[in-house]
Amino acid sequence: MSAQLPGSENRLGGALSEINVTPFVDVVLVLLIIFMITAPMMIRGIDVQVPRTETRNINPEERLILTITKKKVVYLDDQQITLGRLQKVLTGLKKRNPQAAIFLRADEKVPYGVVVQVMDVVNKAGIDRLGMVTEPLSPGERRR
Questions:
Q1: What is the CATH number of the domain that holds 105?
Q2: Nearest by Cα to 130 from 95, 96, 94
Q3: Residue 100 belongs to what domain range?
Q4: pLDDT digits (tens, 9 = 90+) for 80-114
């Protein structure tokens, strides 16, 4: 029998000095796949099919977007709002920011009269900078 010193390397079985990362990589890849599948489901938007035009849209730094859906429901950003409440909110916005601009996204199936009503509310609130959001035509696509 030989005596072993406390710091010697001749232990039974030897010490495992490496960490096995294979299970860790497996777990990370599974989590990555789960997040990739669920991320698009977490982004919720208002489904509106805007008309197409040949001109390009302007990309401002700060945007306040009014959306009118096919069902004639009005949203301010992503919150549903009535026309009466919309005028009060926009009037307050105009007082805080005289250069306020509104972008109007209306589904192409919405009657013209509904769009004009919303534009009238924006005008009554004192906001004269109103932009219409459209989709650009794809190359080779002609206007209907």
A1: 3.30.420.270
A2: 94
A3: 52-136
A4: 999 889 999 988 888 888 888 889 999 888 998 99
